[in-house]
Design goal:
This protein has 340 residues and is α/β, with parallel strands linked by helices. It has 13 helices and twelve strands.
Length: 340
């Protein structure tokens, strides 16, 4: 299994990307291609006293970097020797099984669509992070790639999300919920009401385990395995959850540091609190898959450290071996031919 890593993407590149790749190659027995400015990558290795490339690591040279200030829609076209563009072309050419980048989300989505291409039949690729829930996790699709959607897009998101959960999270017959302002079929705007109708049709044909509308407050309770919504709504939900998690963790810190007694209490619950905090830590998750692209492209957090990069690489290898691309291709064909 070979994973391509955009070594120059992200706030802490290339240092953390290189270190994370070394860890992942060693721990998961992977081959990794680091794409970027070779001299900077080698400087990182030299800093750690590593005189030659570790086993499983190779470098693909790229002279340019796509910055966060670059226009996402034109950066891929104008910076043809950027680490991201070169990495995407390597993936397209079959010189790797999956790609990881912590660079510009917009540029990565644009590049994945233009260079690697979407799965045949998929109208829009979507960002699909896994959120922690009481019973493990759920997939949120979309969380920002498509601000404006049609009901047909949401139907495809439901199928793609179901494929991911069944193949990668190993949950057969995943429950699909449509994010809305209420559970009644009449709730929401025209987009949600029409999407509800399409999803219900698929449920009646026993092609999709649609459980109806769900509200935002129920997402982390794990009422659904796949949460479907437009990218605007999904991004607001995701950022609200991130902000709430930070608020809670910071609140615990303040409480536990108030006095000697609270510090003693903190010592008693240190292990379970640490485990709970770990469930909310993005570095433990890895990254977010662009569902609908013909080969696995993983968007790591822009501030990813070595742990996050290592986990994103592990996640990329897991997705690449899960057969999800083929499953989505089959589902898209089923939708096209099964509208009788």
């Amino acid at each position: 299994m070979k994973i391509i890593v955009d070594a120059m993407g992200g706030d802490l590149a290339p240092r953390e990307a290189v270190l994370g790749a070394i860890w992942a190659a060693r721990e998961h027995k992977l081959e990794i291609t680091l794409v970027g400015r070779g001299e900077e990558i080698l400087e990182c290795l030299d800093e750690w006293g590593i005189k030659k490339l570790p086993k499983g690591i190779e470098i693909a040279y790229a002279s340019e970097v796509i910055d966060m200030e670059d226009d996402p829609s034109t950066a891929i076209r104008t910076k043809k020797d950027s680490s991201m563009t070169v990495a995407l072309n390597l993936l397209k050419e079959g010189k790797g099984d999956a790609l990881v980048s912590a660079g510009s989300t917009g540029a990565l989505l644009s590049g994945a669509t233009l260079i690697v291409k979407r799965i045949r039949g998929v109208r829009r690729a979507a960002l699909a992070p896994v959120l922690p829930t009481k019973n493990g996790g759920c997939l949120l699709i979309d969380c920002g790639a498509n601000v404006e959607c049609t009901p047909e897009y949401l139907l495809q998101f439901a199928y793609m999300g179901s494929c991911y959960v069944a193949n990668v999270l190993k949950k057969p017959g995943p429950r699909v919920g449509l994010l809305n302002i209420g559970t009644e079929p009449s709730k929401g705007g025209e987009l949600q009401r029409e999407a509800y109708r399409l999803l219900m049709e698929q449920k009646e044909k026993e092609r999709l385990n649609f459980i109806g509308n769900i509200e935002a407050r129920d997402v982390l309770d794990g009422v659904a395995d796949v949460v479907v919504c437009d990218g605007f709504t999904g991004n607001i939900l995701l950022k609200a959850i991130e902000g709430t998690a930070k608020f809670i963790v910071d609140g615990f810190k303040e409480i536990f540091l108030q006095s000697v007694f609270t510090k003693l209490a903190a010592a008693l619950v240190k292990a379970p609190v640490k485990e709970f905090k770990k469930r909310l830590d993005y570095t433990e998750v890895g990254g977010t898959l662009f569902l609908g692209v013909s080969k696995p492209v993983i968007k790591a957090h822009g501030s990813s450290n070595a742990i996050a990069f290592s986990n994103a690489i592990r996640q990329a290898a897991q997705i690449a071996s899960a057969g999800i691309i083929e499953d989505i291709q089959d589902k898209m064909w089923d939708i096209k031919t099964g509208q009788e």
